[in-house]
Every structure is written in C-alpha cells, then in structure tokens.
Fold this sequence. Notes:
alpha+beta
Amino acid sequence: MATIRASCGDCGDVELTTADVQVRICDDTNEGTYAFRCPQCRMTVVKPAETRTIDLLVASGVAFSTWSLPAELREPRIGEPISHDDLLDFHDLLNDDSALENALAEFTG
Length: 109
C-alpha cells in the first residue's frame, strides 16, 4: 500500500495510505478533488487537484467516484433574474396564511 503525503490546513504535512484518501471527479468538467480525514485532528480535508495529481492517486490505488453537474445548469435561462425584493415578497407571501391558501386553491383547481 502506497504512502501519500498531504497537507492539513491546521496540522501541516501528514502521511496517509491509499485507503485513507478518496478522489471525486466531475464527469462534465473532468475537475477533481481528493479528500481525507486528518490523522491528527480528525477533520475532513477536501482539496482541488489537477488531472496529473488525480491520475497519480488513482494509479496508486486510491478509490474514486464520479459525479455530474445538476441538470438545472443546462436549462435555458429566460426572464429577469430574481431580485432581493422578489425574495422579500415571496417571504411575506409564505407568512400570509390566506395568500398561501388562495394560491393552493388556484393550483388544485
């Protein structure tokens, strides 16, 4: 089992095994991160990694998983962006029971 040297923001350099590190790769962008739990402070550390680093980690036996960006990012954007005032109005509507009942009545028809 390979020894991997990584850096914890609080503890500095730490030594890990391949079983201590996980790699995640985005299917859409090929960007990757690696994560580990610091053996000294026990905090989870997640760091971005270049393709070369990801390839080295996976080649040395580190487990990896892939993920995809949410489909909503590919949806067309139409209309004006939601403003701060829109959020305040929505908040007020959620706190108004009669407005909520009326909206639900219109929706359920």
